[in-house]
Design brief:
Butyryl-Coa Dehydrogenase, subunit A, domain 1, 47% helix, globular
């Protein structure tokens, strides 16, 4: 289906309303959104960006980002959880469109219902993509055995494939960062039930322990030197991740503005003789300030997503643009929610209120990569060159 502008959609309003009604319960129970995930799967959403020739819906990245924003307005944690699967399919699409078929199996398997998770984060590893504390031991047949800990593994209850990496420190050309895809049925995988956070609770991003878990040779997709790297896989992971992540936080901001407007019309003011708060100049200014920030979010996300779709050549500026987008959108979204929760008054401070949940959920943006410090460093390097080694 399409909206009035002709943009293709997979998620109808009735589905999103059902997702929205369930969101508070999943947050309260600190539970994975099982029903949401089943409905999204049935709607073909897990293959949304998979090209039609691979059996998917063939949405563009810009169209998928718009859908993720709509989903996040209904349930931010559900959107952030499924986002990690969608990132892998977006990365695979980015590569195949540029003549690199090394992740075509991701597209094919996603179309068949496999669920891909992101096994990237590691405690204390601020190198993120460019280093690893996980040991990747080479095996005689070309596979690798991975030992170590991955954190923030969203979709923990349902993933069937884990895209991950570790450090090979023993091969002749070591060190090398080795990327591959782990099957959930492999031995040596333990998923700890340790996700008990302030917000984004339904993502169930549990810690994943690897103890000699083997990725076979045919699922090893890269061996790269540590440090910044122009390899297409790194490019895809970085840029697709940041764009789709930003789209989720844009949705949180949109919903916060709507709730603020609703609260202003519902609440009354004794100081104004019982008139609605929407007539209070201070309230009007807060809502206008929130809307001023919110109105620019979609344009930022859509602009960079279309550039990736159209293969615009930003050269070395791509990483700066993507990290900058993520930081701007998450920080602006938080500022929007800050204003909205004050408009909501004391009732918005109740743990059961939707605004309070959005307030907790939006805080997670500061912890998702890229951090503000990392983004500023990337931007500075793109403009001024690297610091002397």
């Amino acid at each position: 289906m399409s909206d009035p502008t002709g943009v293709r959609r997979l998620l109808d309003d009735a589905l999103l309303e059902r997702v929205h009604r369930r969101a508070a319960g999943y947050d309260r129970e600190n539970a994975f959104p099982t029903e949401d995930f089943a409905e999204l799967r049935d709607a073909g959403y897990l293959a949304a960006i998979v090209p039609e020739r691979f059996g998917g819906a063939g949405l563009t990245l810009a169209e998928l980002a718009a859908e993720q924003t709509r989903l996040a307005q209904a349930a931010p944690a559900t959107a952030l959880a499924v986002n990690m699967h969608l990132v892998w399919t977006a990365v695979a699409r980015t590569l195949t469109e540029r003549g690199d078929g090394s992740l075509d199996f991701v597209l094919e398997e996603a179309a068949r219902g496999e669920v891909f998770a992101f096994g990237v984060s590691e405690a204390g590893n601020d190198l993120v993509l460019f280093g690893s504390s996980v040991d990747a031991k080479p095996l005689p047949d070309g596979g690798y055995a991975y030992t170590g800990t991955k954190t923030f593994t969203s979709l923990s209850p349902v993933w069937t494939r884990l895209g991950t990496f570790g450090l090979d420190s023993t091969s002749d050309d070591a060190p090398r960062i080795v990327w591959g895809f782990l099957d959930r049925e492999a031995r040596g995988i333990e998923i700890r039930q340790d996700w008990d956070t302030l917000g984004q609770r339904a993502t169930q991003s549990n810690t994943t322990m690897l103890d000699g878990a083997v990725i076979p040779a045919d699922r090893i997709v890269r061996r790269l030197p540590p440090g910044p790297n122009p390899d297409p896989l790194i490019f895809g992971v970085f840029v697709d991740f940041e764009i789709l992540l930003a789209s989720v936080y844009a949705g949180i901001a949109h919903r916060a503005v709507a709730l603020a407007v609703e609260a202003a019309g519902r609440r009354t003011s004794a100081r104004l003789g019982g008139a609605p708060r929407s007539q209070d100049p201070d309230v009007r200014r807060r809502i206008a300030s929130a809307a001023l920030l919110d109105d620019g979010l979609d344009a930022q996300v859509q602009s960079l997503a279309r550039d990736l779709d159209e293969q615009v050549d930003h050269g070395s500026r791509w990483f700066a643009k993507a990290s900058g987008l993520k930081v701007r959108v998450t920080e602006q979204a938080k500022a929007v929610v800050d204003e909205a929760i004050l408009v909501g008054g004391g009732s918005g401070y109740a743990a059961s209120s939707e605004l309070a949940r959005l307030y907790r959920d939006v805080l997670a943006g500061a912890f998702n990569p890229s951090t503000a410090d990392s983004a500023l460093g990337t931007i500075a390097t793109s403009l001024l060159g690297p610091l002397p080694s």
